Amino acid sequence: MKESAIHLVLGAGLAGTSAALAMRESGFEGRILLIGEEKELPYDRPPLSKAVLSAAEPKLPYLHPESLYAERGIEVMRGCRAEEIDLKAHRLRLSDGQSLSYDRLLVATGGRARLLPVPGGESAFTLRSLGEALALRSLLRETSRLAIVGAGVIGLEVASSARALGRNVIVVEALPGALSRSFSPQVARFTEGLHRRHGVDLRFGVAVEAIEKLGRGYRILCGAGEAVEADLVLAGVGMKPAVELAEAAGIAADQGILCDEFGRTSAADVFAAGDVASFWSPRDGRRQRLEHWRHALQHGAAVGRAMCGHLTPYDEIPWFWTDQHGVNFQTGGTPLLAERTVLRGSIESGRFTAFHLKGGRLIGATTVNDGGAMRPSLALIAAARPVEAEALADGKRSLREILREAG
Question: What is 115-235's CATH topology?
């Protein structure tokens, strides 16, 4: 590719930043512009619901020092909002009137926190940006009662952080239990017990109908006449992929920007990566859209390389982790597709691994304070060979030995 080529990276999160760095590592010598809406340097999101909220002196979670971008010749444009992608002219128009030409464009716009779709729902706090995290940190030090709507990963991480600060926490969830989109039932029940032991009031099967202002606080109106009062309300009900700009340009999207295993979209010279991308997985033979830190890192880098002509199908096994009340959880693969789950270790001890099987093969694993089991588990998932459930459950058997036996 010619030295005068220009690659624009729209979205300065982990996926976009990883892509920009991978382009340089792949030998790309043209201009790279990393364009972000926020005025901050690119930063990490996982600490926003944990250390940024609870640490006595939080360290701002920037991905890299500013000097690194200068050293790599990456131009970071902060506080820039994109208004239009002109596919025919290969140009990106910004809200300040600038119009930037590109040879190749990466859309890594991530997503936005979902608002509660009920009357008064806009009054609930959301947590997606560093600015929101710092504001929530301040508010948690001025209030005593926090209500969280949604018992997913973000909601429960914030619950853990708030309890560490001594705040009263109520979590309301419309579904029958916590983390139903992330963990198997066994691990989800353990997590619920963990939160209750740490004083979190979990209420399931509770649908929020409205939020009312109540003096200096709020009243959450729920079904069957139930009401919850709190000083502060947080909505932890997921994120919405930021596909609007791509859709307006005519790029194919369906709950995410559609792309192939190399990150190529339906538009020539336009790629997508990270949370916003609905990519084809050769391993699973289906589309996936993942919102995990590790996926953003790896997918961004893979697509960045692809933009430079190094086409390797993205085929990583999903893997994410969360820390709650001092307990580390890690999940790899696709545990929710399992036909059977077996445990190694004891739930009562608080240290165990759940192995998720389908058709006699390991398709997922969840570790609880047992992180050393994750890498060999991922290798077993990648091997896609039959494995005996009894061997996995036997704590005396080495996972690496089982992997060798599986061939």
Answer: FAD/NAD(P)-binding domain (3.50.50)
